[in-house]
Write a structure and sequence with these properties.
This protein is α/β, with parallel strands linked by helices and 152 residues long. It has 7 helices and 5 strands, in the order E-H-E-H-H-E-H-E-H-E-H-H.
Length: 152
């Protein structure tokens, strides 16, 4: 049986997240989605998530092609593998060819885990959505006018 693992922050859930999970499920018999904890996102991305872990887990658990959603609290993916025993790891192709990606591929190859990359959804990302939200909250005539309903 092919057990897949797809990890992500899944903050500000968008179609790119859905694409990764859908594609992952199409290539395994059982899909585990790892939802990165608030603390891990702060550590790795340098910013806290907009949506807290409990809510992100709830969203991901209710996606029909996710068989199990678990909090990802370990920084080392091999430690996560030791706990969950998946045999295929799914990742966006923005990791392909990077130092982190190559290291991950080598570590997983040593324990028999295949790494499969999926195309990164270029037109949307949580980072882009976060920037748009921050721009809406900037003080200034445009933001104040938009908030009050007054014309600019």
């Amino acid at each position: 049986m092919r057990v897949g693992y797809a990890a992500g922050g899944f903050d500000l859930f968008h179609v790119g997240h859905l694409n990764i999970l859908r594609q992952a499920r199409s290539q395994c018999d059982f899909l585990i989605a790892g939802v990165v904890s608030d603390e891990m996102l702060q550590l790795t991305k340098g910013a806290p998530p907009v949506v807290p872990l409990s809510e992100r887990l709830e969203i991901v658990r209710h996606i029909s092609f996710v068989d199990e959603a678990v909090p990802e609290v370990l920084r080392d993916k091999l430690d996560t593998w030791r706990e969950l025993q998946f045999n295929v790891f799914f990742k966006g192709d923005d990791w392909r060819g990077t130092e982190r990606g190559l290291r991950l591929e080598n570590q997983f190859a040593a324990v028999g885990v295949e790494v499969v990359y999926f195309p990164y959804t270029m037109h949307t990302s949580s980072t882009a959505l976060r920037r748009a939200l921050e721009a809406l909250n900037l003080p200034g005539p445009v933001a104040r006018g938009a908030q009050s309903g007054a014309p600019d």
